[in-house]
From TrEMBL:
Protein name (Swiss-Prot/TrEMBL): Cytochrome P450
MF terms in GO: heme binding; iron ion binding; monooxygenase activity; oxidoreductase activity, acting on paired donors, with incorporation or reduction of molecular oxygen
Pfam family, one: p450
GO cellular component terms, A-Z: endoplasmic reticulum membrane
Keywords: Endoplasmic reticulum, Heme, Iron, Membrane, Metal-binding, Monooxygenase, Oxidoreductase
Compartment(s) of residence: Endoplasmic reticulum membrane
Superkingdom classification of source: Eukaryota
InterPro entries, per database record: Cyt_P450, Cyt_P450_E_grp-I, Cyt_P450_sf, Cytochrome_P450_Monoox
Amino acid sequence: MNRKKLADEAGGVDKLLQKETASGKRRMAFLDLMLDMHAKGDLPLQGIQEEVDTFTFEAHDTTSASMNWFLHLMGTNPDIQEKVQREVDEVYGEADRPITYEDLGRLKFLEACIKETLRMYPSVPIQARLLTEDTKIGKSWCSVD
């Protein structure tokens, strides 16, 4: 499936965001865009299924790896773990309610710990690229061969 085609179908990402902001409509999710294209006959169901599978499985692996590293770092740094626990207790306390988006916005130290985990142990440490044609970078040439 061609992601550029999806953006073009929506009139370009910038246009889509401008239209939604002006009209007050909610932004369409990527899946909504694909389903809309399917309804117009521009995208087969198999293409949608492949994209959903990719998002689901790729996100699962990277999320679980990141969570493992975060928990490892908390376990090996008990002083930091205690500070995170104090912050959660201060924000959430003994409340018998679901955590809200506002609660999450107040967990600044926890957010910093998560970001530091992702910095130290990125889920995708390298993005390899393959040259398809000779390319000049600065004063040097990179050859396909």
